[in-house]
Amino acid sequence: MSTKSLRGSASNEAFSGRTMFIFAAIGSAVGLGNIWRFPYVAYDNGGGAFLIPYLVALLTAGIPLLMLDYAVGHRYRASAPLAYRRLHPKLEMIGWWQLGICVVIALYYAIILAWAMQYTIFSFTKAWGDDPAGFFMSDYMQVSDEVTISFNFIWPVFIATAIAWLALLVVLMMGVQKGIGRINAILIPLLVVMFLIMVGIALTLPGASGGLDALFTPSWEALGDSSVWVAAYGQIFFSLSVGFGIMITYAAYLKPKSDLTGSALVVGFANSSFEILAGIGVFAALGFMAAAAGTGVDEVATSGIGLAFIAFPAIISEAPFGVLIGVLFFGALAFAGFTSMISIVEVIVAGFRDKLGLSRPVAVAVVVIPLAIVSLLFFPTTTGLNLLDVVDAFVNNFGIVAAALISVLMLTAGFSALPTLRDHLNSVSSFKLGRTWMIVAGAVTPVVLGYMLIDQLTLNLAEGYNDMPQWFVNVFGWGMAGGLVVIAYLLSKLPWSRRTSAAFTSPAPSVEDAYLDRDLLTQDKAFTHYRGTAMRSPALDQDYSLRAIQHGTVVHQRAPWDDRTSTDDDAPASTSAGRATRDNHEGGAR
């Protein structure tokens, strides 16, 4: 039975080609952290010397993990929950965990995007006046002195956030190619051009050289500090969008024969190049700010919200061409945030499409509208900034890191999937992988992620979080992080919809299915006789992914609820082979 007769699989959509995929992947990777996090992390961890551990982290963790996500998504052609399920039924929970992380991030990411949009407009009139900090905290966000939850809405922020959600709804409704692909193909080149112009102007400002000296002057003794290396790995990990389902989902939309490792190299180095460009632009501007104030760069250097919405407005107010710098900076921030948010929400849409067998328009509505309501209810309020602070810290440190650690451990020590995934990558890619990739992905990365997780866990348990009330941290920090795991487990136990082909078919066998290949090879007919099967078998230490993925499953089969009479082509080669196939891809039949 052809899988095309069944509806609802997210992998039915595809990017038109590798270039469109690369634009989308770069759009996801290049986000707010590249602009407002990397410059300060580099400055605070050895300056120019930081580039050494940063490059090491990129080559030994960032790109290998990117390739790992690509392999899972491309081989199993599905959203994160279903891709992990197809890899092994017991791994489905990891996919839902990653999807849950995306839900939480999407809720607060929209308001940051709204800030960037409004500050682009504010740049024309320098609406923040002489006190950017007071304007942002008191006039714009009206931050409450009490750390709690209230529903005192800040209506300008509310409206801007609603516009961000509406724009996202429209793009996702348009689909993978016409929506996600095309908007990234437009915004990413535009983002780069805007940022290059902004950096060029920043470099002409008085004092810019002082800022660049502060950023790039190496502090070689920092290389002996383990925290510097952890900071490098953390920056690479958080900036590449690995470990929480995005790259798995995007890779599922690639055509069967796509250069995966080559794409990972392009995306990884493009992301890092933009981070270095952002560092140059930001510290050139901070150098001007320090010179104008008669202080050192260390007194004005900051990161995150403080850099974007307090320090940069102060620079814009004083700098020549300040209006142009502001429009370019905040416009670039808005574009980077929007392309990243698209990828975050697409993970959720794809997951529920596969689980419930929904069409794209219905799935987008079912996902985006509730997310928008919750986001608008809690974040554009006088207490929203404190909520954002806690949720962001815990979903990153105890959500993304923990989920990535568990997934890597399961793919290595748990189910020994790395050889199969490596073979898949090599079968379609120009840059071939060997034992080194498996060592860095399966050994180096878990050690680093484990250290990061334990370090943050110890720190938060000992010192609390930012002097916030313990009940607030327990509910929206620890409670949120733990709740994601519980919800992921419950979702993994729900049956898959009968309306989706994704419920019981897979373009590739699970990693445990090598015995099935051996069973088929014992039959009288050649292995290639079975339509849709692999040309070669991992049971024989060979690659499994060169078969025509788009034609169906390992052995074509009928849905358990389909009463139509099977044909010779649809039936398994033998009763034993048929049982093995159904047992390993039962999905919605369960």
From TrEMBL:
<comment type="similarity">
    <text>Belongs to the sodium:neurotransmitter symporter (SNF) (TC 2.A.22) family.</text>
</comment>
<keyword id="KW-0472">Membrane</keyword>
<keyword id="KW-0813">Transport</keyword>
<feature type="transmembrane region" description="Helical">
    <location>
        <begin position="186"/>
        <end position="208"/>
    </location>
</feature>
<feature type="transmembrane region" description="Helical">
    <location>
        <begin position="93"/>
        <end position="116"/>
    </location>
</feature>
<keyword id="KW-1133">Transmembrane helix</keyword>
<feature type="transmembrane region" description="Helical">
    <location>
        <begin position="433"/>
        <end position="451"/>
    </location>
</feature>
<feature type="region of interest" description="Disordered">
    <location>
        <begin position="557"/>
        <end position="590"/>
    </location>
</feature>
<dbReference type="Pfam" id="PF00209">
    <property type="entry name" value="SNF"/>
</dbReference>
<feature type="transmembrane region" description="Helical">
    <location>
        <begin position="51"/>
        <end position="72"/>
    </location>
</feature>
<feature type="transmembrane region" description="Helical">
    <location>
        <begin position="361"/>
        <end position="379"/>
    </location>
</feature>
<feature type="transmembrane region" description="Helical">
    <location>
        <begin position="321"/>
        <end position="349"/>
    </location>
</feature>
<dbReference type="InterPro" id="IPR037272">
    <property type="entry name" value="SNS_sf"/>
</dbReference>
<keyword id="KW-0812">Transmembrane</keyword>
<dbReference type="InterPro" id="IPR000175">
    <property type="entry name" value="Na/ntran_symport"/>
</dbReference>
<protein>
    <recommendedName>
        <fullName>Transporter</fullName>
    </recommendedName>
</protein>
<feature type="transmembrane region" description="Helical">
    <location>
        <begin position="265"/>
        <end position="293"/>
    </location>
</feature>
<feature type="transmembrane region" description="Helical">
    <location>
        <begin position="399"/>
        <end position="421"/>
    </location>
</feature>
<feature type="transmembrane region" description="Helical">
    <location>
        <begin position="153"/>
        <end position="174"/>
    </location>
</feature>
<feature type="transmembrane region" description="Helical">
    <location>
        <begin position="21"/>
        <end position="39"/>
    </location>
</feature>
<keyword id="KW-0769">Symport</keyword>
<feature type="compositionally biased region" description="Basic and acidic residues">
    <location>
        <begin position="580"/>
        <end position="590"/>
    </location>
</feature>
<feature type="transmembrane region" description="Helical">
    <location>
        <begin position="471"/>
        <end position="491"/>
    </location>
</feature>
<feature type="transmembrane region" description="Helical">
    <location>
        <begin position="228"/>
        <end position="253"/>
    </location>
</feature>
